[in-house]
Amino acid sequence: MRIKGLQPLLAALALTAAGLRAEPVCVTDDAEREVCLEQPAERIVALSPGATELLFAAGAGDQVVGTVNHSDYPEAAKKIPRVGTYKRLDLEGLLAREPDLIIGWQSGNPGAQLKQLREFDVPLYLSEPRRFRDVASTLERLGALAGTRDPAKRAARDFLAAIGGLRDTYGDAQPVSVFYQIWPDPLMTINDEHLMGQATRLCGGNNVFGDVDNLTPRINRESVLERDPEAIIAGGMGEADRSWLEPWRQFEELQAVKRRNLFFVPPSTIQRPTPRLVKGVRILCRKLETARGRRG
Q: Do 121 and 192 fall into the same domain?
């Protein structure tokens, strides 16, 4: 009698559990599109190194089954199968990973291929963090989609706290005029709306191309010489490649050259919208503090 009495209860509990699992998860992505899943994603493909890193930071690294070239952080990301580059996706290879969620890069992935992906029966979340708070929000939204809300919320909270600490430290620093080079040929920089532009401003930097319209404008060398920045910041093709700075040394009339203010920041720490921005911004702020100390 006791066993028979338990059967209806167990059946009811099973139905309740099934109902809970079926509860849809919905978030709004950075393209203002609602992305809904019937249940948290178990097989995720990330279409940029930054998206891969964000998923790991949100506690969903074990669910990433495909990514693109140069997804190298954390160490476990290097072992994930590749589905092309962020500029040229292997759509057949991507679908072969059988994803139940795809994280795209709105401004970085090819528009035509993103359009194709929208036609497939796989939810597509488009990511484009433009502010520090957007990085935190992205962590929380990815955590919701992946079923890792708690670690994602902790990562978001810790990130904002660290950025706030840097803002408190450097908020009243004397301005330093800065040229930030993100590519050598064609020569490219960032404006103040870019996340790296905001990092520069947080450190007390005055971006000499901050007022241009394009997020990542192409410029010429003469325009840099005309603006005569006090500091030049650049990355490179690797985490220790300072070669992009070398051509500027020939322009001895530049303030940045005269004062030895040609600074390198490891690109992955500041060019990806992830929690590692804290490390990159900290390095950048210290470089600009060095520039202040070299004034006559």
A: no
